[in-house]
Amino acid sequence: AVGMIAGAFGSHGLKARPGITHEKVSAWTTAAHYTIFNGLGLLLVSNHPRFAIHRFAGPAIAVGGFIFSSSIMALILAR
Predict the structure, then answer these.
(1) Which band of pLDDT confidence, cut at 50, 70 and 90, is reported for residue 59?
(2) Is residue 32 within 8 Å of residue 69, measured between CB atoms?
(3) Average pLDDT of the residues in 43-72
(4) Which of 25, 50, 54, 65 falls 20 to 30 Å from 44 in CA-CA distance?
(5) Which of 6, 23, 22, 1 is nearest to 70 (CA)?
(6) Which key words are in the record (predicted)?
(7) How far is 48 from 50, CA to CA, in rounded Å?
(8) Residue 24 pLDDT more than 80?
(9) Angle at 2 between CA 7 and CA 51, to 5 degrees
(10) Which residues have CB under 8 Å from 30's CB, separation 6+?
(11) CA angle, 8 as apex, 57 and 24 as ends, to 5°?
(12) Average model confidence (pLDDT) across the chain
């Protein structure tokens, strides 16, 4: 849901901000896509039969995806 909300904001709300270029909108879209793909990856990993053995995989995917996507979004909003 977060990825879809971020994508919708990038398509509609972000363009209204001053100083937003096409490259920044493209980077925002990439970050939103990565958020969605990380969510799908987390669902796939959590449904794996041996997920309970590998307790590090789920949090690693969640934290890594959050840090990566939010850093791109923060850079765009800060400039």
Answers:
(1) confident
(2) yes
(3) 85
(4) 25
(5) 6
(6) Membrane, Transmembrane, Transmembrane helix
(7) 6
(8) yes
(9) 130
(10) 72
(11) 85
(12) 86
